[in-house]
Amino acid sequence: MAGLGAASLALGCSKKPGSTGSATNAEQAAGVVPTFKDSTLLPPDIKGVRPMADGYVKYPTSLVDAVTEKAITSGKPVTAVTPWWGPAPPADNRYVQAVGADMGGTITFSVQDGNTYGDKLNTMLGARDVPELTCIPGWEIQKLARFSDGVHVLFEDLTPYLAGDKASAYPLLAGLDTAAWKDSVWGGRLMGVPFPTDTPYPTALYIRQDVAEQRGVAAPTSLDTLYEFGRTMTNPDRGEWAFGDIFLEVLQICGAPGSQNGWTRGADGKVVHRYETDQYKRALEWMARVYREKLIHPDLASSKGGDVTTLFKGGKIFSYGTGLGSWKETQREMTRQGKGFNMQAVKVFGADPDTPPVRWAGTPSIMWTFVRKGLGKDRTEELLRVLNHTAAPFGSKEYELQNYGVEGTHFTRDANGAPKTNDVFTKEFANQFIFLGGRPAVVVSDPDLPHYAQDVVGWGNDATKYLEKDPWAGIKVEVPSEQAAIQQPTDDKVTDILRGRRPLTDFDKVVKEWRAAGGDKARDFYAKVLADNGR
User: What distance lies between CA 394 and its chain's CA centroid?
Assistant: First the structure.
């Protein structure tokens, strides 16, 4: 998922919905979230250091039926919209048909380009024209200035269906992480079904390890060596550039804060935004230099819309930042081509050898699925049964079907019985059901990627040492709409500076404009949240 990198998100729990922003201690959400019922079927092969998920190297020799009754009983097709960062799947889709049949009916997906998903959402939400199930990533919610109001207008309150022991009717939904459920509360009501994160990290810095090794270039371990990597790997005459946009990674390398949309508490105890820190300025200046020296692919540097993943797979760039969810799909596709492609996340490092980095932590849920309001009790319960089906854990037949498709059509089995997917799977699979509903977080290897679980969990366990301390941890903050409204325009101005359309000296002016437009009000809001909670 290429979009998993906006920043850590703070969404969700307040006693009254509103656009002025409010916050409630997370424990006050306990009364509206499901009573947890562990649905784990198998002990892990690799233990994750929390909040990193556990890893599984071996595929189970026998699978269980996690759902014994059909989810869809009305005969009416279910409509849904989900994002995807890859080629659009065909409408006549055997994978979707097979999972739908297992659920007892038809799921009609509108799969939208993840890179422009926010535009699609703005159009749908603005027109109040949403399907029965709408998947919305957290980083898109962050950009929707009045979402805390709109969520109650457009979507069904799930509290009467899932609060406490009521969730026993949907036992697999009750198996989702309680922290993710608490993240699903807006205005004191349970409004969405969460997709729990399997790693706490929105992004990682990736390199083409295979190419770097062929050329004798070491993985970077500091800001200086990252720059040298860029210089060494860039050769315009061969159509090669080192980087995609890695600004979010550079911000973390430099130690800029990321919690609560960039807010943190300084050494003096005062609330400060990352725009106002020396670490942010250092990252900005370094990144502007990389753009100026043309170490970033020109299609990306000029906003022509080049696909960063395609460029990375094609050997046109050799490093970029993206979400950890993108790792498996990209590596699996290229491994199947048998060309020695090796995508690896770089071990976390700081700007200088003696300066520790920070790693931003996302919320316990990456995205949410919302049920359209006003469908009636029977249909809402039917849709929740669909989402209960998608929450099937690793080791179940439902998990295998949703993640690998149909044996003989989408995959074969290796000597150990593990699914080995084929080109039909690659064409038809777009994480449709995985994005549609949550599932207990795990990291799973497969025959195409035998070392994947070790690589991801190993990287994550190391990165956990550098997780940023969030002063608002345990408090669910509903972001003021005024702050959400100024975020994108300010980031656009920063992008202009990075790409040389405005001078670096304009940054102080940008920050001054941001403060006047709502930044200082947001500072007062976040400081009050801390004070109100005795911090």
Answer: 20
